[in-house]
Design a protein that fits this description.
Elements lengths: L1 H15 L11 H6 L2 E15 L6 E13 L6 E12 L23 E11 L5 E8 L20 E9 L5 E12 L12 E16 L2 E12 L7 E13 L4 E13 L9 E13 L4 E10 L27 H6 L5 E12 L2 E11 L6 E14 L3 E12 L6 E11 L1
Antiparallel strand pairs: 1-2, 1-18, 2-3, 3-4, 4-5, 5-6, 6-7, 7-8, 8-9, 9-10, 10-11, 11-12, 12-13, 13-14, 14-15, 15-16, 16-17, 17-18
Length: about 400
């Protein structure tokens, strides 16, 4: 596993060597001298009251992120970024590494890690070729994303090719051979990394504001987590229509079919469905959304649609009650009927979300959830966030309440 990481870093450094002579008068020293440093900090207090636990979780953490991008050298771009996560005060939560299993889990373990280190070549018209440790986010991040809500980000040791011609279509391909997960640099369970053979292929064709069609094929094979292996083929449609008096209607439709793949030890087949409509009113900077999402069931034990690389916090409620089930698949599946409202006023952004959860088969009632958030941005560099999630259990897990206080600063 670690040998794969060393291969990535050594290859990136080796390929970066010729960059110093990429163009007349260009030198690596000049590029470094004219480079750009980025620095940001994110403090968070997270509280969790999880019914199965007698004790609550109280987590204070600080993430510091340092990045550096040398000035462009001809057609080459280089970027390196480090993350450091530290706990403040006593560990009164289970970070997956500290052994505090008597408290709810807040998966933000301490450690310093190389978050990104990639080299990108832009010398071919409309083509971008990247190699190294990269951030990869596909579409809504339902199947592939960075899990950016957690203090440790999920990034990918990979080769990426993006084709964006001056035409209404575009293609993206990525081959991922290691996943650097959110669990920090220390060994433990869940695993800090996943050795993989993953192919991601995405295509988009825009016909105008009313319709953009998409198709994707994701083949995921996990060497050290075969249960997660799957093959997913899907299509999508998105569009927007301007209405009268500052109103706009958006929609998103998506369907996918998934089955076992590669080293999977479970033979299964399951479907995915998303239907979502959004109504925006520009004068008040407000929007309403109504959606229906289904992670399909399967007839075999250990089946059910799975999304192990998704940015899970974005979906099925901020309490993350279904995070593990979404990663590994739930036999009876998950149906989520949800409503969302958003309002922006001055430098503030306010959200309300309501979810009603059930099974895809056998008509089971999993529960419901209420999510609330308020965020304010100051001087474009500072952001304060207050956030609440309350899951009311019926036939899945127990009641779960979470609260967050977060302050972020970027430079």
């Amino acid at each position: 596993m670690r040998s794969a990481k060393r291969v990535v870093l050594a290859a990136a450094v080796a390929v970066a060597g010729p960059v110093a002579v990429a163009g007349p008068g260009d030198t690596l020293a000049t590029a470094i001298g004219n480079g750009r440093v980025t620095l940001d900090f994110r403090y968070r207090y997270e509280f969790a009251d999880d019914e199965p636990f007698a004790r609550d979780a109280h987590a204070h953490s600080l993430r510091s992120r340092l990045g550096f991008a040398p000035a462009p050298l001809g057609d080459w771009r280089l970027f390196v970024e480090f993350d450091d996560v530290r706990h403040i005060g006593n560990d009164r939560f289970n970070d997956t590494r500290n052994g505090k299993v008597d408290r709810p889990q807040v998966p933000d373990p301490e450690g310093t890690d190389l978050n990104q280190f990639w080299l990108r070549y832009l010398g071919i018209d409309s083509l971008a070729i990247g190699f190294g440790r990269q951030r990869i986010e596909r579409g809504r991040q339902r199947f592939v994303g960075g899990h950016g809500w957690r203090q440790n980000e999920q990034t990918f040791d990979s080769l990426s090719i993006d084709w964006t011609p001056p035409a209404p279509y575009r293609l993206s391909y990525a081959y991922i051979f290691s996943v650097n997960r959110i669990y920090g640099p220390e060994r433990g369970a869940p695993a800090r990394d996943l050795d993989t053979r993953i192919h991601l292929l995405d295509g988009r064709w825009r016909f105008g504001p009313l319709l953009e069609l998409g198709a994707f094929v994701y083949l995921m094979d996990f060497d050290n987590a075969p249960t997660l292996s799957n093959a997913t083929i899907g299509i999508s449609a998105d569009g927007a229509a301007a209405l009268r008096s500052g109103w706009r209607l958006d929609y998103s439709l998506q369907f996918a079919s998934q089955r076992d793949h590669g080293s999977s030890r479970v033979r299964f087949a399951a479907d995915y469905l998303l239907l979502e409509g959004r109504l925006h009113w520009q004068p008040w900077r407000a929007s309403l959304a109504l959606g229906y999402e289904v992670l399909g069931s399967a007839d075999v034990t250990g089946g059910g649609l799975r999304t192990p690389l998704a940015s899970l916090h974005r979906f099925q409620g901020w309490a993350d009650r279904f995070a593990a089930a979404s990663s590994f698949g739930l036999n009876d599946g998950i149906r989520d009927l949800y409503f969302a409202a958003q309002w922006r006023w001055r430098n503030g952004e306010f959200q309300l979300r309501v979810h009603d959860f059930g099974s895809d088969r056998r008509s089971r009632d999993w529960g419901s959830e209420l999510d609330l958030s308020a965020a304010w941005t100051f001087r474009e560099r500072f952001r304060l966030l207050l956030k609440y999630a309350g899951f009311d259990a019926e036939e899945f897990g127990g009641d779960l309440s979470k609260f967050w206080l977060q302050f972020a600063a970027g430079f």
